Amino acid sequence: MIHHSMIVIEAIFCLWLLASCEKPVIEKTDHSAETSGRPAETTANFVLSVKGFHMVDFDGTRSEQRLSDYCSRLNFVVYQDGKKQKGINQTSTDSDFGRVTFALSPGTYQVLVLAHSAQKNPTLTNPEKIQFTNADGYTDTFYYYGVVDMIETAKSEEVVLSRVTSMFRFEMKDAVPAEVEQVRFYYTGGSGALNALTGYGCVNSQQTVFFDITAEMKNMPQTFEVYTIPKAQTGTLKMTITAYGKDAMAIREKVLEDVPVEVNKVTEYSGSFFTDDDNEEPHEQDDNGQHSYSIQLLTEWADTLKHTY
Predict the structure, then answer these.
(1) Mean pLDDT (the chain, rounded)
(2) Is the pTM of this model over 0.85?
(3) Residue 286: left if φ>0, alpha if ψ -120 to 50, beta else—which one?
(4) pLDDT digits 0-9 by tens, 179-198
(5) CA–CA distance, 213 with 183 (Å, rounded to integer)
(6) Distance from C-alpha of 148 to C-alpha of 164, rounded to nearest angstrom
(7) What is the reported pLDDT for 297?
(8) Distance between CA atoms of residues 150 and 157, nearest Å
(9) 191: burial class by Cβ within 10 Å (0-12, 13-18, 19+)?
(10) How far, in Å, CA of 234 to CA of 302, rounded?
(11) Looking at residue 64, what is its pLDDT?
(12) Digit-coded pLDDT (tens) for 25-42
């Protein structure tokens, strides 16, 4: 009887040793999406969408344009106190292009929507410096930046985007020679980065855009368009246009000083680039000696400033 009791005690003692050596299993919870002092985000409660563009055609009728007619990429970013919290990137091939949902805890946020057609997305970490690069290209760009206050109930917002860019259009009235392989536009005075708080450019950029000249483009006049983000409503650029042949040999170059640019306006220069034309017409002017403007409405470019070179 005593021997049997000892066996039971030893068995209990062994079980106690095993239990004391085994690490306890604790269920883990992912709090990575939480903001300090706020409850965890569990469901999508903020719907953000871009309202469709509307424009007035030349015949005076109103037509609706698809969002993809203006851009191939959309960036939706949520900031809080200047720090990026969440972001969703879309391309025009996405079925829900122009509409996203976020799960946000109660609080005040800043929301950015950026529309562009660059090869890649810009740097979006800081809303005061949204940086595009020469490698990814500069395109027509639109944005929205505003404040949203989230409370316990869900919220949905439609936003309208505004253009932040100015376009420089360069028209070659003479034919591009067969030996030309590339045309480069190098320009300073504008910005390749946007400050979403102001809607203007925020750095002094040295912007470069190359155009490859295909066989179909040779031996005929060509028109090129490049973009910048002005650092104020108006500004000026120094524009250097260079035509290259094989082995990057410069064939022709023209430097344009004090090229006027303005947000949501086109500056157009036209003339003979490869030949010296002494019979060029002077800049188009009205009766008051001012450069003439052609006005387009709403999402179309506001004005075209025409010059000859």
Answers:
(1) 80
(2) no
(3) beta
(4) 999 999 999 999 999 999 99
(5) 7
(6) 22
(7) 28
(8) 12
(9) buried
(10) 13
(11) 55
(12) 332 222 333 332 333 445
Structure token digits, residue 268: 């157009």
- Beta strand pairing call for 193-195 and 166-172: unpaired
43 near 103, Cβ under 8 Å? yes
Torsional sign, CA 189, 194, 198, 203: negative
User: What tokens were used for 172?
Assistant: 């070659």
CA 15, 16, 21, 26: dihedral to nearest 10 degrees? Answer: 100
What's the CA gap between 270 and 224, in Å, rounded? 10
CA distance 267 to 304: 6
Q: If residue 207 lies in a helix (H) or strand (E), which one and from where to where?
A: strand 206-212
- The bridge status of strand 162-163 relative to strand 166-172 is unpaired
Distance CA 90, CA 88 (A): 7
Nearest Cα to 249, choosing from 165, 184, 174, 172? 184
Q: Quickly state the pLDDT bin for 19 (edges 50, 70, 90).
A: very low
Q: Pairing relation of β-strands 206-212 and 62-65?
A: unpaired
Q: Which structure tokens are listed for 227?
A: 């973009």
Q: Would strands 265-271 and 303-308 be described as parallel, antiparallel, or unpaired?
A: parallel
Cα gap 33→41, rounded to integer Å = 7
pLDDT (tens digit per residue) in 150-175: 987 899 999 999 999 999 999 999 99
